[in-house]
Specification:
Two copies of one chain form a homodimer. Chain A has 18 helices and 25 strands. With about 750 residues, chain A is an alpha+beta fold. In chain A, the strands form five sheets. In chain A, strands 6, 7, 8, 9, 10, 11, 12, 13, 14, 15, 16 and 17 form a twelve-stranded antiparallel β-sheet that branches.
Chain lengths: ~750, ~750
């Protein structure tokens, strides 16, 4: 039911292109009738409503006061429009960035407060740009595949225009026609042309970069009422001459042959029907602002397009999806390239929540997020949110166990999120069995991360970059992003023969995706997600299943992790667990080296120090660690002679770009088939003030694989208190009605459906 | 003025011993009159007052409800008095610990609530112990120099008695005379005898252990009205037969020949006249409970002793001292052995703040700490605090720049704390030039740590121990505490020839202390502390000065660090800086090794990996790092060919007992004399949500030593914005009136007093 058929999408797309053509005609006819201003984000009617409510809506008033103070300080500081010179983090970059953010706010203040000083400020700054822009060559910094003029990349030039279009809209009527003509001729039109016609390799793509480019052009087109430009924004440049083998700075292809482009294509392709954005939450967040602000503008100026209903309302749906892709503190799960710490407190998410509330049926759950954010947009959407909060309509936003499919049609695997234990101490599994995720994708099929509250228990490393911190590679991606962060071994998933999935090749990875096997969270005490990957290593099949199980023999729900590997040849398999915190104890012996050497030479292994190796006795290996006042234990059923390796990130890192964090790798050598079964427990607590440790030891006596063939797996989990539980699963049949029967140790077990969990002792 | 002469102290001590003899006579006569119960912490009159206020004092009522819920749950759980078996962290240890904490609370509840179920619970548990105790051999775990019976060490046995005495006092009148006799004969008297006569090596010392022992015996003596036992508690055992060469588990001497012992000696010796406890804040906190609870009991039962006036009221003074030895979050500075995270939220500090408020003249600043603590003692002191808070009397506790002398007479160096920047973003320097600090002392003369808000900028490693976490060496000190944490190289101070101060020898260290040179915080924009150390390395003189300078060319006050070294031979000098966070950039080249080896073989060096070495060009070396959303830069004036070494803690650490944190060492080879001059800046900020970095670069262009001889040092600090400042200091004259004159680069500079800071350009 969740999937929309490919055909339906095409129909919708065709319809919309038609609609947008109609819209153009209409625009032309409307032009004669004189378009109102402001009309994009603020509207004349909206402004009247806002003025009528001033002083009566606390959160709106507070935001207004804050924005006013910020803009007033900038006005007092005076206008600075320097000649572009720096990468991000540098003065000219940050100054121009600040300018566009302030211009947008000043425009809004002019409308709401009717104070000409804001209009004058916008006007003066616009003419400073009008004066500078025509003199600018392409930006002197050369690292980008699409260099801008104000900034080192067209992406940032587009950011500028998305914001400045709104400022222009707000002061449109304040300016004389002559002034407007001058601005449009010398600044806005050439600006829009440069980021579109001037840079088709940037503009004509399906990518968050192009989304910004499309929206920049679209927004200024709406203000200037320029139908041709709007069409370019919506549907891309007709001609681009892009070489189908060309790649961008992140190693992604610019454009597949025959691919549709423009804003509508950028809604169609990267969003799955569930609203999951294939690049991952960090870039979804980044793209949300242009997606939603342009959608709002289209809705205001061209309501007949019904943009919020496009692709079954995916833009609005994506807001809830994104909010669900956060930990207990609202921080985004760093799937693919993602900077840790980014959260729904970002300005893009203020926009998303406000727009989502206003245009998406006033969901009261969004108000609780807006409350946490503590600010609103200064438009009719923000006003509605602030009124909702004032009137006590907010309801808790309960994050759910949920699966989000990936791929334009929802057929390219997905991401499964399983949660337990309520909100504050929430345990959350993030399981990735998605598509490549465009140029920001990591080679980490069937990888996972695990959270307790807002803390990482088993981490996804995220990206190797210090966004906008100039001393770290100009604030851009570091080479360790490629050599470490994207590599398979940087993730909690299987690595075969010390190579990355798909050989670390973007074009191969882009052709493939994992497949969901099952996702079932109906029973809150036994939530199961399972997926298969058959292409990461040709000839080797991977099947990984997680079950988050609430069992009264345990203090907290525990995570059962089952990985089946079926190879055609003998291989070495590594399964890393990047545990966060300090080792407390192990139940196995290991040797620590006198001298640290790297675990390997390439594919990320060159960045790992080998801190110690133990040899399994063939029973269970137990590793306990401590973090954030909690204890954790990983108990793994290991085969005899499995290597148990402690690693530390940070080798071959001459600029200290990597965090010196720990990992634990279970290595199987010369194995064709393999099965990894582990249980991860969160248990007990230690407070450095009371100095009392509770439940500091694992509750698991042992785990045992009691059945294992191509069709079934059976695992016994014995707890310290004596209980014995059996988890059974069929590996090739997910039918809920199918009855299964197995004999294990001379005893027969029967169940219906793909899996079963029972007390056997 | 601050120092009390040695002679005065002796007089006071003699007087008190006399007083306590008198008291004994009085007690005997009082006995015939029947001593009231309770009389130690709760008193009959105090209980009446409490009952009259029930329901009217919110914080008291809340605490009472919390304690009642806790005790009720334990009563429901039933009594468990297991046969002793485990180290700390293990079941029997934690159970007996919980028992004594609950017994004390149950006794209080009986008194306040008049509910016999609490008295019955105390009685039943006491008889369970009365039944068990006579059967017990010494504890089966053998690690302690003074094994207990209920616990592995007499220290914990003493903890038990300090709390249980209070419980016994509370139910004294509930029990029949026969019951009391039985308890005293079979439990309390043998118990007190075992931890005193049975373990003189534990009882007859000056040490936090003995304080607990003395107080345990003293408390039960007060309840039983046993004058002889009380005398033993106050003045120690007359005979002990302790070998003057005997050492405890921490390597400290048990007892110096001729040393006075007992409770009064434990007040006299380790506390300086400023209330600084020579072992450091972590153990001061630990000892505060017995010190204050016994002082309160003595004040109630033997007010004629005027215990709170003893040694110029040092016990009360020590409370404010301890509160000042915390960072912005209330966490204690981990001087000597100290577990990080321990704070004034501990139960010992609740006692300290409440007792300090009640007996120390109702300082309203203590109420603000009590408010943060959110609980009070259930006695008259806690009632007074809760009433004060209810009545709005609380005032902010402003932590000051302050010096605390060390040594019984305040003549053995000290600790200088310098603070700037207000409370939340407070910058705090902790500079240690104290005495050895008994067996918990570290070999770290002239070491420092530096804080911003509650975060460490340059850390003191603290101890190597996971207190009460059983899987880490039974929760006791780990061997890395000796091989790493106590060693000089584990601290931010000078190491000569890769050896520790005093050769790492406790007996040598104990004979020596550093000396204050000056401490002047009169000018809040220029706070200076300076000290000398002449004995750590025979033949080498160390003189280190810090100035925390607020200068308008800098965003925040910066820390100037000047170390002068004068040797008689050529040595290697290392100055480590254990910076917290991730390297952002350096202005020097360095090589990172392909294979990690240790920096040395012993004295802590065996625990450091060498992560990279640069060679200085003889100008300035700059290291910037990032932590907790802030940037920091260390700029050092270095000599040509100084080695700049990056280290990582964690080599030769087979059980992962050490934290993998970073350090930066400036190494001078083959140097007789040396001067280290550095500036540490906190600057800018980066927020991962806004992704905006501000002021990410150091404001220092360079620093230069422009004058340097045996009598003076002159340093020029040039800022990026062009300012040039000169810091001048006389190295052998601290007179405030003395006029100085120097010629530097053909210019004459004059100033009055030990130092001067001026703009010169």
């Amino acid at each position: 039911m969740k999937f929309i058929k490919h055909i339906q999408i095409l129909v919708v797309a065709v319809l919309l292109v038609t609609v947008s053509c109609k819209a153009q005609t209409k625009t032309t006819s409307k032009k004669a009738q004189v378009q109102e201003h402001p009309s994009l984000i603020l509207t004349k009617a909206g402004v009247e409503k806002i003025k009528a409510e001033l002083g009566k809506v606390p959160l709106f008033d507070e935001t207004l006061a804050k924005v006013k103070a910020e803009v007033d300080a900038e006005i007092a500081n005076g206008i600075e429009v320097p000649v572009p010179k720096d990468y991000s983090g540098g003065y000219t970059h940050e100054r121009h960035k600040r300018n566009f953010l302030i211009l947008q706010k000043a425009g809004v203040l002019y409308q709401i407060l009717d104070d000409e000083k804001y209009a004058l400020y916008v006007k003066d700054m616009l003419f400073a740009y009008e004066n500078l822009y025509p003199t600018l060559p392409v930006h002197p910094q050369t690292r980008s595949y699409a260099r801008g003029k104000l900034f080192w990349q067209c992406l940032n030039d587009s950011n500028w225009l998305v914001y400045v279009s709104q400022a222009y809209d707000c002061v449109y009527d304040y300016l004389t026609e002559k002034e407007r003509k001058q601005l449009e001729k010398n600044l806005f039109k050439p600006y829009a042309d440069f980021i579109s016609k001037g840079n088709p390799q940037f503009f004509n793509r399906v990518h968050n970069h192009s989304t910004w480019g499309n929206v920049a052009v679209g927004m200024i087109a709406l203000v200037m009422d320029d139908a041709a430009l709007l069409s370019t924004a919506l549907n891309g440049l007709k001609k681009d001459g892009i070489d189908p083998n060309a790649k961008d700075n992140d190693g992604g292809y610019i454009k597949k042959a025959g691919q549709k482009v423009g804003f509508l294509a950028n809604v169609n392709e990267p969003f799955s029907p569930d609203g999951y954005y294939t690049e991952g939450p960090y870039y979804q967040r980044y793209a949300m602002y242009p997606f939603l602000v342009f959608a709002e503008a289209l809705q205001n100026v061209k309501p007949e397009m019904k943009i919020f209903e496009y692709k079954n309302g995916v833009l609005l749906k994506s807001i809830n999806t994104l909010l669900n892709l956060t930990d207990a503190d609202g921080k985004f799960f760093p799937l693919n390239d993602g900077q840790k710490g980014m959260s729904y407190f970002s300005r893009e998410l203020v926009t998303a929540v406000n727009v989502g509330y206003y245009f998406g049926g006033n969901q009261p759950e969004l108000l609780s997020i807006a409350k946490e954010q503590g600010e609103v947009l200064l438009d009719q959407t923000g006003l509605a949110v602030a009124i909702g909060i004032r009137d006590g309509l907010a309801k808790t936003f309960n994050k759910k166990s949920v699966e989000y499919t990936d791929g334009a049609n929802g057929t390219e695997g997905g991401v499964g999120i399983i949660r337990a234990n309520g909100s504050k101490n929430e345990l959350a599994l993030v399981y990735k069995y998605a598509a490549q995720g465009l140029s920001h994708g990591h080679y980490d099929k069937l990888s996972f991360s695990y959270y307790e509250g807002g803390n990482e228990v088993l981490q996804d490393y995220g990206l190797a970059r210090f966004v906008n911190i100039q001393q770290k590679g100009g604030g851009n991606y570091l080479k360790e992003n490629t050599t470490w962060a994207k590599q398979t071994v940087a993730h909690n998933t299987i690595v075969q023969n010390e190579t990355s999935h798909f050989g670390g090749k973007f074009d191969v990875g882009s052709l493939n995706h994992s497949n969901k096997y099952l996702f079932d969270v109906e029973n809150p005490n036994l939530q199961v997600v399972s997926a298969k990957e058959n292409n990461a290593y040709p000839g080797t099949k991977l099947h990984r299943t997680f079950a988050l199980i609430k069992d009264e023999s345990f203090e907290n729900p525990f995570l059962l992790d089952i990985v089946k590997v079926n190879g055609t040849n003998e291989n070495q398999y590594d399964l890393p667990y990047y545990f966060m915190g300090q080792v407390m104890s192990t139940n196995f012996k290991y040797d620590v080296p006198k001298v640290l050497t790297t675990l390997g030479e390439k594919n990320g292994y060159q960045h790992l120090w080998n801190e110690g190796v133990g040899i399994s006795d063939g029973k269970n290996s137990k590793l306990s660690w401590f973090n954030n006042e909690r204890f954790y234990t990983l108990t793994a059923a290991v085969a005899k002679d499995d290597e148990l390796i402690f690693v530390r990130i940070g080798a071959n890192d001459p600029e200290f770009n990597l965090r010196r964090e720990a990992g634990f790798i279970i290595r199987k050598k010369n194995a064709k088939d393999a099965v990894y079964v582990s249980v991860i427990e969160s248990h007990g607590n230690y407070n450095p003030v009371s100095e009392i440790a509770t439940n500091a030891f694992s509750s698991i006596k042992n785990i045992e694989v009691v059945y294992n063939n191509d069709n079934y797996i059976g695992i016994v989990i014995r707890s310290e208190t004596g209980g014995e539980k059996l988890f059974l699963m069929s590996l090739n049949d997910t039918s809920k009605e199918k009855a299964h029967k197995l004999e294990i140790n001379n005893k027969e077990y029967q169940w219906v459906g793909p899996y079963s969990y029972r007390i056997i002792n």
